[in-house]
Amino acid sequence: MMDRTHTGFRCHTVRLVRTVHGDLSPGSQGTVVYEMDNLDRHLILVRWDKGIVVPVFSEEIEFEHERGSLGR
After folding, report:
1. C-beta of residue 15 within 8 angstroms of C-beta of residue 26
2. Which domains does the chain have, with CATH numbers?
3. Mind listing the pLDDT tens digit of every residue in the chain (72 residues)?
4. How far apart are CA 31 and CA 12, in angstroms?
5. In this structure, are residues 29 and 46 in contact, taking their beta carbons and an 8 Å threshold?
6. What whole-number distance in Å separates Cα of residue 68 and Cα of residue 49?
7. What is the dihedral of CA 1, 37, 47, 11, to 10 degrees?
8. Hey, is 65 helix, strand or coil?
9. How far apart are the first and last CA of the chain?
10. Assessment of whether the complete model's pTM goes beyond 0.90
11. 60 three-state secondary structure
12. Count of alpha carbons within 13 Å of 39, Cβ hemisphere only?
């Protein structure tokens, strides 16, 4: 099921993320499109500022409003 609770939220990668469309370096920024659970993993589809739209795992990103928190 798709969850649009965080749609429009800004986020950034917390480490290097390799995708089929290229690497996202630490600190890469994007905007959340939607979230979903698939095979017991939480995925977040993000429209990245570098022009690609790819899903990432929730532990690979941090929402901008969480910056400065103790992490996930």
Report:
1. yes
2. 2-62 (2.30.30)
3. 777 888 899 999 999 999 999 999 999 999 999 999 888 889 999 999 999 999 999 999 999 875 544 444
4. 9
5. no
6. 22
7. 120
8. helix
9. 22
10. no
11. helix
12. 1
Amino acid, single-letter form, for residue 4: R
As given in the structure block, the two tokens for residue 44 are 């977040």
The rounded radius of gyration (Å) of the Cα atoms in the chain is: 11
What's the full length of the chain, in residues?
72
- d(CA 7, CA 52) in angstroms, rounded, equals 16
Residue 6 CB neighbour total at 10 angstroms:
16
Side-chain half-sphere CA neighbours of 33 within 13 A:
12
Task: State the amino acid at position 46 in one-letter form.
Answer: V
